[in-house]
Design a protein that fits this description.
alpha/beta, Rossmann fold, 34% helix, three-stranded mixed sheet, globular
């Protein structure tokens, strides 16, 4: 394998065309550094991107005009503004119920894990927790207690998880007033022994009420993701959700449009059953990116109901790739928010 000169590498990294696909900034603008010359290129990004390695390697070879490039992709999370050993808290929210927020949240968490991050999932829907069933946690399983005061997260599909469903019977309704619900959220959030996490994904209840305000007041939230469907009534509530997070100074990382289109399994015809382009319109309205468009697909429902979400069931499949792409995008946005967290490209002789 040949040796690449440091001048050649620097020249390639300065070209405007060599840009990050999510941030639309060149490696130079993101603060890339060339430490030494050689044929082995090691790229450290501020977001997990194992699934992006082949595409980035091909792109780098084109700009270097050389096949003698051996790319290694690494992940170094930005410092974050979380709590204890949790670097980033990310709220996955919706203005209304029924848009697939919880299914999206669990698959985003699994996608970040499969891309190479340490991930936790908190089911903050105190009144209607569903993550236990979606993750296939057996009914009646209780979290262990550490030092007589901390819950030990229940591990499922590689995630560290906590949910009210682990503490109460599935058939017991949570008939609680606001203060009781917010107290339960604080306990699940702050009295869980999360250990070291790059991201804690919080599956929020629908709406803009007490739970949302409590989360914003009790821990520094790095950003929020809004899940909506394309239909106009869902977009009205999505706008309310975005405005709420802005009022409490939580950055909105972007919008995910769920149930975006439906492909007929018999004829392959594509139909926009709930409208078209709604997620993109609301994202443009508020100046945030559209992180992803997810189809209406029966397999997503089957996987979730069976306790084996799509990204866990088929991590390399077409549906999972949509979640993984959206997860990389939201993590890249978090990285971009921290100007000090820049990629480092280290090149060493093999």
């Amino acid at each position: 394998m040949g040796t690449l000169s440091i001048e050649r590498l620097r020249s390639a990294l300065k070209v405007e065309q060599f840009v990050d696909p999510y941030l639309q900034k060149s490696c130079q603008d993101l603060g890339a550094r060339v430490l030494s010359a050689g044929s082995q290129v090691s790229v450290t990004l501020g977001y997990p991107a194992i699934g992006f390695c082949k595409e980035l390697a091909a792109k780098l070879k084109i700009h270097l005009n050389s096949d003698d490039v051996d790319l290694e992709l690494h992940f170094s999370p930005p410092p974050g503004r979380g709590f204890k050993q949790v670097k980033h808290v990310v709220a996955v929210a919706s203005g209304k119920g029924g848009v697939g927020k919880s299914t999206t949240a669990v698959n985003l968490a699994l996608a970040l894990d499969r891309e190479g991050a340490k991930v936790g999932l908190l089911d903050a829907d105190i009144y209607g927790p569903s993550q236990g069933m979606m993750l296939g946690v057996e009914p009646g399983r209780k979290p262990e207690i550490k030092d007589e005061k901390l819950f030990v997260p229940v591990k499922a599909h590689g995630l560290k998880t906590m949910s009210m469903s682990y503490l109460v019977d599935d058939n017991t309704p949570m008939v609680w007033r606001g203060p009781m619900a917010t107290g339960a959220l604080q306990q699940l959030l702050l009295q869980t022994h999360w250990e070291e996490l790059d991201y804690l994904i919080v599956d929020m209840p629908p709406g803009t009420g007490d739970i949302q305000l409590t989360l914003s007041q009790k821990v520094p939230v790095s950003g929020a993701v809004i899940v909506t469907t394309p239909q106009d009534i869902a977009l009205l509530d999505a706008r309310k959700g975005i405005e709420m997070f802005r009022k409490v100074d939580i950055p909105v990382l972007g919008v995910i449009e769920n149930m975006s289109l439906y492909e007929c399994p018999k004829c392959g015809e594509l139909s926009h059953l709930f409208g078209e382009g709604g997620g993109e319109r609301v994202a443009q309205e508020f100046g945030v990116p559209l992180l992803g468009e997810l189809p209406l697909d029966v397999q997503i429902r089957v996987h979730a109901d069976g306790g084996n979400p799509t990204v866990a069931a088929d991590p390399d499949g077409a549906l999972a790739q949509r979640y993984r792409d959206a997860a990389r995008h939201l993590a890249a946005r978090l990285w971009d928010l921290d100007i000090e967290a820049a990629p480092q490209i280290r090149i060493s002789d093999d």
